[in-house]
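Q: I have two molecules that I believe assemble together. Could you output structure tokens for the complex as a whole instead of separate predictions?
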Amino acid sequence: MTGDNKGNGPFIEIQDVSKYFGDFAAVDSVSLAIQKGELFSILGGSGCGKTTLLRMLAGFETPTKGRIFIDGVDVTEQPPYERPVNMMFQSYAIFPHMTVEKNVAYGLEKDRVARDEITRRVDDILKLVQLETFAKRKPDQLSGGQRQRVALARALVKRPKVLLLDEPLAALDKKLREHTQFELMSIQDKLGITFVVVTHDQEEAMILSSRIAVMDRGRFMQVGTPKEVYEYPTSRFVADFIGTINMFEGTIVDIDGERVRINCEETASDLSALSEDPPKRGSTVCVAVRPEKIFISQNEPENTEDIRLSGVVEDLGYFGNLSLYRIRLPGGKIVQVSAQNRRRSAERFLEWNDEVFISWRPRSSVILVD
Amino acid sequence: MSTVTALRSDKLWQQFAVAIPYLWLLIFFLAPFAIILKISLADPIIAQPPFTPFVDDDGGISATADNYKFLLTDKLYAVTYLKSVFMAAVATLFCLALGFPMAYGIARAGESTRNLLLLLIILPFWISFLLRVYAWMGLLNNYGVINNVLMWLQLIDKPIGFMYTDFAIYIGLVYSYLPFMVLPLYATLERMDLDLVEAAQDLGAHPSQAFWDVTWPLARPGVIAGCLLVFIPAMGEYVIPYLLGGPESLLIGRVLFDEFFVNRDWPLASAVAIVLLLLLVVPIVFLQRSQARDAEGAA
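A: Yes, here they are, computed for all two components at once.
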């Protein structure tokens, strides 16, 4: 297994890894393959095991079970200071007693890189993160965004095979986050280093990543591209965790090829949905549809193929570019709908207690079993 | 209007609060210091008090540097000062070597163990200092616990003379002052971000390198505070060398005591005290400078 799969095989391979703290399984039989150059996100709530998994990649924790390979080399037992991996800590962990320059040079000094090469590489990386004028500053003279970039530069300067990022943007304010997200992506693109990001922020994961692993209670719930995970969630947990979604509980009453008819008490009428591999007739399922996939109108929609329901506007929120509506169905179920405010007062705006119709295409929803 | 008065009274309170420590220093440190300084410039006489007055009968000022000259000419004093500095320094180093791992261990222990360990560090203070030093006499003397155990184990066939040696003084100093080293070290180590050590290791530092590159420099304020808290009292220590040390282990605290109470030469004793103070002020100023420099570099 050593070195024979360079180039083609997965760059990081996690094989059936578990980590127990006492009886508690923080990470529970997780397997994963990450390709070279990917920007991979591990997404989950607090306590889901994502940080433990990252710490096992960095070498701060040893798996109770399973192996970890990086670039074909088994690193499971390697201490952190021998791994070709660097980490950007959530707290940034910048050495407060060293200047920016010294912080960045630290890793190279530990590798006994020649003096003049250290100077050159530190200069280069500080230029890349636009901190060249701050080289002589001490960390407490920097803003949050600047500290974040020092941490990034320090982790990148050693040209690790893998860069691990623990909640890289969590400590930044909203404006700076958006800017930094794109900066991170462009740096990753420029250097071609494989990034593994741990985050609890689904938006961050969606924008940054080439692929996302959604984690819950120590296990991967779904691994896929942001689009796959958002549009085709495979479980209620994933559907609910990423973005907002409306779920209708029901029983499958009819299957006609791809077309599945679900009897749903909450909507008073049957719902139809499409599934390539539908569950058996009679099984209890959940039809899930995102708020932006639902159309809202005051006139009854004409397309009879669509699912059509009527209700009353219970609540609405105006966000400028879009509006969010909470529609109450006759049975009491609340459906969330979002609509782009494309035209200005062309139509009369919907108001509280307006009677409305909502509709969506069968193709827009997914059937969830778990 | 009312806000103005409120502000003014706030300010008054602030000044009052700041004034208290200054007042304290003035009454309990500067004033006695001035008195001692005055006595050190007098001649001893057999009278009550046993020194010549600063202002003589004719209204002139009578001051002499004889006592200081005597301190310089008699080699005994120089040797005693040096020996005191040396012993205090060695005791401080031992306290640091023992105290650092202790403080580190306490700072990294779980919350409940941590409180218990801290309690254990502070617990000896509930017993009188003098009693604790006496207890060491019981442990160290020729028929004491240590010698008896060693003889019972047949490791030695006659008692080792621990008592009345420099070794016994070191035991006493390190034992008595260790908590003063551990507590400030614990305070700095406990606040330290563990991510920093992990970051150093992540960047390629072996755990021992990470310690010297990160933990040690960041623990420096605690190290300095602990060393001062041990060195200063150890330097002037009287009880420990008196009870545990031999007649030849003459330390400056002992000399000071003897000059005052045995020879009743108050002016010379005062001069000894003033020089001792100066010897202590030098390292304090030096360390404070270096700390101020650190703070400046960080700011």
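A: One point stands out. Chain A has eight helices and 20 strands.
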